[in-house]
Amino acid sequence: MSQHDMLYQPVTILEGGTISDVANVFNKTIVGFDLPLGFPATNITFMAKSKIDGEFVPYAFDGTAVSLAAVDGVIGVAPSKFAAVQQLKIVSDTPMTEDTTIYVIARSVS
Fold this sequence. Notes:
The chain is mainly beta. It has one domain: Jelly Rolls (Sandwich). It has no helices and eleven strands. The strands form three sheets. Strands 2, 4, 5, 8 and 10 form a five-stranded antiparallel β-sheet that branches. It has a four-stranded antiparallel β-sheet with strand order 1-11-3-9, with no helix packed on it.
């Protein structure tokens, strides 16, 4: 797989906010997230929808809400955890102290 098969989709959580704008990952599978140094939250969860005309809802895998420890740098995830997601929002457990960009990393579906 070449780097051209990868998507690095930036999303932003605005200062004072906890929910990012939308990452569109159509025809790709999420494999990770790149959080900036000094990210102020301790955990992130997700809101997702699997079709364009659906609503954003809290995202769960196998009936359990997906939650990740928010560490500086790249967090890899099992592609199967996000296989059903077409659009995603990241939810921080702490309001941002400034506009904060996170990269959703996805790869081509084969």
